[in-house]
Amino acid sequence: MSALYGNSQALQSLSNKNDKPLPGTKMKLVTWKYHENPQYTGGTITGELVSVETVETGIKGLVSYRKELDNEKEPGIFQTKEQRIQYMMGYQPVVMP
Question: Residue 44: its pLDDT value, please?
């Protein structure tokens, strides 16, 4: 399970389906494992934190990527930082009524 968190510039970048984040963008993709809920048959709960990835864009538009925590046992399907940034830019924002 993953959730992407970001500031207003990140929301604007994702809403406009930009290929590159706008200046001032800050996003964090947090991924964790699911486990069966011992209190409820068939239910799941969040468990171990797997990774935290950060994308930030400076005022001049320079994009940086880093993985702050990485408990993954196997390499992901994305091998480069650029591919990972493009993956995160492909997320669609949740719209609340």
Answer: 81
